[in-house]
Amino acid sequence: MLRDKHILVGVTGSIAAYKAAMLVRALVKGGAEVKIVMTPLAKEFITPLTLATLAKNPILVDFFNPENGEWNSHVSLGEWADAYVIAPATANTLAKMAHGIADNLLLTTYLSARCPVFVAPAMDLDMYAHVTTCQNIAMLRSHGVHIIEPEEGELASGLSGKGRMAEADEIAACLSSFFEKEMTLQGKRFLVTAGPTVEAIDPVRYISNHSTGKMGYAIATELASRGAEVILVSGPVSLPVPTGVRRVDVVSAKEMFEASMAAFADVDGAVMCAAVADYTPANPENSKIKRKDDIVLQLKPTKDIAAELGRVKGEKLLIGFALETDNEETNAKGKLERKNLDYVVLNSLRDEGAGFGVDTNKITVIGRDGTAIAYPLESKAQAASHIVSLVENFFKK
Ligand code: C5P
Q: Is the peptide bond before 301 cis (omega within 30 degrees of 0)?
């Protein structure tokens, strides 16, 4: 999968720089053409001679060659590369990347690269766990950078913990599987809704549900990894924005309705995974409700987003979810009809390992013609890949 790919490797100043030699070897062995850019400090950890010999290309460090004034163009390096992998990536380089600092060739190349970018962080466990590093990594992820997680283990400091750079073979495999994924949904756009909605009772209390957004986020991730453009309308959850996905944050069912309607005009299809509140307080109070005897909370129905999209969908693909506790299949089929869905994905709270919060799900996908495919208990990522394969088939027709 790496054959004839142009891989630009960035090396920063970390003890793990010695592993860059193994990485370059693995990439070259896999058939890739490799160029290397180093930070000035990286040269203290591994010699340019070693890396240049393995890459069969000269190493680039400076903006220009002081001997003859030849310019090392970061723009053309970025254009040349099919992927840019920075391994090892120090806390310093990650911070600079997150904030647009461009004081060396490795960083200017990052800012001008149009290709997918991968980073393999390497640092001491406390540096890796520091809130600033965590925020920088989260920011890079939301900018579409692929993070190759470090491993737990013995560190150069003598301490043991998370921060050891992923092994060279693992980084090469990660790149290889990235290129392996066929971009079957390139040029297609999708709306995905995910997470719960939160309906205010007063400024302090609310009505919500146990949804954590994991299923919807897995679907958004899978759609994006097959080349689709994804708008993820998300209720409040504590998950990072998946790579390559545009997230629109909403709180209430009303906000989710408005954001979804606005996004739907411009997409080829939608997967409605959010656990939208069916009712919202009819008269939310502006001030905190004081304790008294019994109170009656009047609720009014929210708008059914999936049903409204079903009404206006035309030729677009619309997939909904049905989380049931009883009469599962009948209820799910009812929703498919009522909301004018093309497919309904049923999961039952009666199945162990399915539903809220967990990383697994057990889904049955029901089509308009009544055909039902039941999948075994599997990870939400695997369940997402079945659903996205369905999306793929829909557009093959
Ligand atoms: O009727 P029920 O809420 O179980 O329907 C579930 C499906 O409808 C899910 O796809 C959910 O995201 C969607 N839905 C919606 N707007 C609502 C309620 C449900 O989009 N107000």
A: no
Which of 208, 209, 321, when mutated, tests ligand 1's pocket best, judged by the most ligand atoms within 8 Å of its CB? Answer: 321
Give the tens place of pLDDT for each residue, 101-116: 999 999 999 999 988 8
Is any atom of ligand 1 closer than 6 Å to the C-beta of 305?
yes
What value, to the nearest 5°, has the Cα angle with vertex 87 and ends 81 and 92? Answer: 110
pTM for this predicted structure: 0.67
Q: Convert the pLDDT of each residue in 197-232 to its tens digit.
A: 999 999 999 999 999 999 999 999 999 989 999 999
Cα of 97 from ligand 1 centre, angstroms: 40
Domain boundaries, the chain: 6-182, 189-396
Residue of the nearest CA to atom 2 in ligand 1? 322
Q: Report how far ligand 1's centroid is from the alpha carbon of 388 (Å).
A: 19
DSSP 217: H
Q: What confidence tier does 17 reach under pLDDT thresholds 50, 70, 90?
A: very high
**DSSP β-ladder status, 6-11 and 33-38:** parallel
Say yes or no: CB of residue 172 within 6 Å of ligand 1: no
pLDDT above 90 coverage of the chain, percent: 74
Q: Which CATH superfamily is domain 6-182 in?
A: Flavin prenyltransferase-like (3.40.50.1950)
In this structure, CATH architecture of domain 189-396: 3-Layer(aba) Sandwich (3.40)
Active site residues: 209
For residue 306, the CA-to-ligand 1 centroid distance in Å is: 6
6-182 and 189-396: identical CATH topology: yes
How many residues does the structure list for the chain? 397
Tell me the C-alpha distance between 68 and 220, whole Å: 50
Atom of ligand 1 nearest to the CA of 278: 21
Tally of CB atoms within 10 A around 169: 11
Q: How confident is the model at residue 152 (pLDDT cuts 50, 70, 90)?
A: confident
